[in-house]
Amino acid sequence: MGVNRRKFLKIAGLSTFLGLGGKTAFELLAPGKLEAALPIMAGKRWAMVIDMRRMNEETIAKCQEACHREHNIPDLGDPKVEIKWIWAEEFEHAFPDQENEYIPEKVKHKNVMLLCNHCSNPPCCRVCPTGATWQREDGIVMMDWHRCIGCRFCMAGCPYGSRSFNWGDPRKAPKDLNPDFPTNREFPTRSKGVVEKCTFCDERLAKGQLPACVEAADKMGKDLVIFGDLADPESNVRQALSKHYAIRRKPELGTSPNVYYII
Amino acid sequence: MYDGGKIIVGLIVCLAFFMSPFIYDAGKAAKAPDPELTPKAKEAKECVMDTSYMKTSHMHLLDKWRNTVVRDGERYHKNTGNGKVYYKSLQVTCLDCHSNKSKFCDQCHDYMGIDPYCWDCHIEPEEKK
């Protein structure tokens, strides 16, 4: 996408030197020309709005299954070593800061679909010593598994428990629980000693597709889970947020999460 | 020289031990690799870059790809020769044509004694035996 400072200076210096100045430099520096002609979902601040009023255990499980099959996440059969990109948690555990003692029972014990919040101010990125996790220009908190050294600082930094560590090789997951693993031969698995989490399906956005969980949710009901660009006032997510009251997980920590829940 | 006989015998034994791999393999040159193209790869005629570049520098291209794809979100590659656009992916694009990994990739890598760790994560194509 962008051109870093070093590259910019190199190109600018070279083009000035050659006396080509204006047009050539402009052409060389125009980023993503190739990408611009292709069907790519582009945004400035990706966000998700989950309508918890209409979600239940079954719909959450379907979204989770779609995600985990898409990204070759095995069922390891042991909660101590589990890998999760999407998971379910009771409302009172997902939102411990909602200090109303007398919320309706059915809300209190309702399961909430949780995933990485792709915070605008992500603590995980600040603590990563190798730059293996960072925030992209479109707001996605991305992971580079080539660079992760498995120090797990990010797991300590994330206040939402969105990150999982591969204690073993995922390809050695029990065969009886994962008969058709790897489920998506177009996506890699991870290796032992690497941290992983949801990436808002950046590889699907690059092909102009919606994230796998959103696609799965769309099959179960309209606008159950919606995905869009918060920076665009006309976007579906902004429309939904202006129509309904929505909450976010632990906003008081200042991480500015980008996953919203309509309660 | 005290114990000269023992020292000389010892030296010969040591030398023979260290030379043993060379003596064992003497006269048996390892077969030079001859990467095989699948019918699909043959039909395509040209790879994502020209063949001579791919032969010498595919590792640099793949390294560049993995950095630009993951870190910069640049997922498409344009062949500077014929202008065709490719989706940058070892698993999806490269191995779609070169689906015979053992005959195309491994042969040379084994010959050169290198063991790239790409396959720890990237899934190999299923090959017919």
Architecture overview:
The complex is a heterodimer of chains A (263) and B (129). With 263 residues, chain A is an alpha+beta fold. Chain A is built from eleven helices and ten strands. Chain A has helices spanning 5-17, 21-29, 33-36, 57-70, 91-94, 105-108, 123-127, 153-157, 202-205, 212-220, 236-243; strands at 46-51, 86-90, 111-115, 133-135, 141-143, 164-165, 195-196, 225-229, 246-247, 259-262. In chain A, the strands form four sheets. A four-stranded mixed beta sheet of chain A has the order 8-1-10-9. Chain A has a two-stranded antiparallel sheet with strand order 2-3. Chain A has a two-stranded antiparallel sheet with strand order 4-5. The model of chain A has no long low-confidence stretch (mean pLDDT 90). Chain B is mainly alpha-helical and 129 residues long. Helices cover 54% and strands 5% of the residues of chain B. Chain B is built from five helices and two strands. Chain B has helices at residues 4-25, 39-44, 51-72, 90-97, 101-112, and strands spanning 76-78, 85-87. In chain B, strands 1-2 form a two-stranded antiparallel sheet. The longest helix of chain B has 22 residues, at 4-25. Chain B is elongated, with a radius of gyration of 23 Å. The A-B interface holds A 1-2, 32, 34-35, 38, 40, 72, 134, 136-138, 142, 144-146, 182, 185-191, 202-203, 206 and B 66, 70-76, 78, 85, 89, 91-92, 117, 120-123, 125.
